[in-house]
Q: What sequence folds into this?
C-alpha cells in the first residue's frame, strides 16, 4: 500500500518537473554532491596515532602484523591438524604389523639336507624349498630353453643354484604337486599329470607356466628369507 | 613487529612459507611436550621405567 502510494507520488513529481522544463525551456542543473553536508567528526573514536590526517600512518603495519599473526597462528594449527589427518588416512592404507609379520618367512637352511625338498606354509600357500645336488643343477642348466613351454633359464629362476624356492601351486588348476616325483625328477602334479623339473619348470602335462618363484634372498650363509 | 610484517606477512608467498615452517617446529614442540606429560603421568608404569628390575 505504502509502496503504491510513494510510486504514484514520484511519478507525479517527475511529470510535473518535465512539464515545467518544457514550458520554461531552461536547463536546470541538479547537484547531487551535497557539499553542504558537514563531515562528522570521528576524532573521539580514532586512535591517537591516526588523529592527525597530515601525518604518516605509523601504526598501521604494527596493527596489521598483529592481525596476521593471529590468523597465521590459526593456520599453523590447521596445518598441524591437516598433516595429522593425512598421515592417518595414508597410514591406514599400509599393511598392519600382524600382516607384515606374516608376509615373510625365515628358514634355517642347515636343517635341509642336500637332495631334499621341504614344504613350508607361506601366505597361505605351500612353499617348496629344494636343496639341489650338483648333478641336478648341472642337468637343469643344460636344458635348452627351446624345448620349454615357458622358456626360462635355470639362472633366471634361482638366486643361489643350490636352493630352489618355488610356490607349490600347480599353474594348471592349483593343486599341490608332489616333490621328487614325475618324469623329470622335480615335481609332479597328481591332479592332471603335470611334470615339473628340478627347476620348477613345466616339462610335460597340461600346466601352461613354470612354478612361481617368490622374491627371496639370503641374508647370510645359512638363512633364507622369502617375502 | 614492523620488521616481521614487512619481511614475512606482506607477501602471501612468504606468509605461507612462514606458516609451514612454523608448523614444523610447532608439531615438534607439541609432540615432545605431550610425550613428556604422558611420561610424567605414567611414571613407574612403563617398560622403560621398570626395565632395570629385569636385566
A:
Amino acid at each position: 500500500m505504502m509502496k503504491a502510494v510513494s510510486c504514484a507520488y514520484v511519478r507525479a513529481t517527475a511529470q510535473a518537473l518535465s512539464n515545467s522544463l518544457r514550458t520554461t525551456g531552461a536547463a536546470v542543473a541538479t547537484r547531487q554532491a551535497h557539499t553542504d553536508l558537514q563531515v562528522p567528526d570521528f576524532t573521539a573514536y580514532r586512535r591517537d596515532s591516526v588523529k592527525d590526517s597530515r601525518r604518516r600512518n605509523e601504526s598501521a603495519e604494527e596493527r596489521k602484523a598483529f592481525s596476521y599473526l593471529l590468523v597465521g597462528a590459526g593456520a599453523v594449527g590447521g596445518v598441524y591438524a591437516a598433516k595429522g589427518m593425512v598421515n592417518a588416512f595414508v597410514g591406514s592404507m599400509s599393511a598392519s604389523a600382524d600382516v607384515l609379520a606374516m608376509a615373510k618367512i625365515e628358514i634355517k637352511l642347515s636343517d635341509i639336507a642336500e637332495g631334499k625338498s621341504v614344504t613350508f606354509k607361506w601366505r597361505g600357500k605351500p612353499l617348496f624349498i629344494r636343496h639341489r645336488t650338483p648333478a641336478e643343477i648341472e642337468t637343469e642348466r643344460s636344458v635348452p630353453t627351446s624345448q620349454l613351454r615357458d622358456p626360462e633359464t635355470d639362472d633366471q629362476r634361482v638366486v643361489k643354484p643350490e636352493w630352489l624356492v618355488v610356490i607349490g601351486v600347480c599353474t594348471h588348476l592349483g593343486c599341490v604337486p608332489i616333490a621328487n616325483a614325475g618324469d623329470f625328477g622335480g615335481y609332479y602334479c597328481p591332479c592332471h599329470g603335470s611334470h615339473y623339473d628340478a627347476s620348477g619348470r613345466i616339462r610335460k602335462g597340461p600346466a601352461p607356466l613354470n612354478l612361481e618363484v617368490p622374491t627371496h634372498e639370503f641374508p647370510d650363509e645359512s638363512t633364507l628369507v622369502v617375502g | 613487529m614492523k620488521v616481521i610484517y614487512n619481511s614475512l606477512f606482506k607477501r602471501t608467498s612468504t606468509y605461507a612459507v612462514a606458516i609451514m615452517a612454523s608448523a614444523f617446529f610447532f608439531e615438534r614442540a607439541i609432540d615432545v611436550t605431550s610425550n613428556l606429560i604422558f611420561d610424567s603421568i605414567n611414571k613407574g608404569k612403563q617398560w622403560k621405567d621398570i626395565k632395570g628390575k629385569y636385566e
Q: What stands out?
A: Residues 12-41 of chain B form the longest helix (30 residues). Chain B touches chain A through 15 residues (CB under 8 Å).
